Amino acid sequence: MQPFLDSLAYRVDTPDGSVVFTGDTQPCQSVIDLARDADMMLCMCWDDQEVMNQSGEAPGQCGTTGAAEMAQEAGVKKLVLVHMGPALSAQEPFYNANLAMQRIYQGDIVFSEELLKIDL
Q1: Which residues does 43 contact at the CB level (< 8 Å), separation at least 6?
Q2: What is the pTM of this model?
Q3: Which of 98, 28, 29 is nearest to 65 (CA)?
Q4: I need a labelling partner for 30 at 20 to 30 A (CA). Which of 11, 40, 42, 112 fits?
């Protein structure tokens, strides 16, 4: 049994802008390179990074500050967090995670929800 599967990421460039979709991945240079100067990056973000580091969930998955670091280094304009775990839905963890991300990432941060429409 393979404990971690390969993850894919895609970039779509259109006349209206560029969007990057990450799969389940930990922060990595290949995603940063793919997302370079993208208008939007939809990034898997399971939980608050500190919680993930303490619980041992960080390897193979991206957390809040990991997503922020990748987006900042890549120069992404808008970071959209997707595939979030239930812990980020509570008000205090959400607030703390958002503050931690804003210290790292200078662009717009969107915590996604079902059926949310987002403009480039």
Answers
A1: 22, 62, 67, 70, 71, 79, 80, 81, 82
A2: 0.87
A3: 98
A4: 112
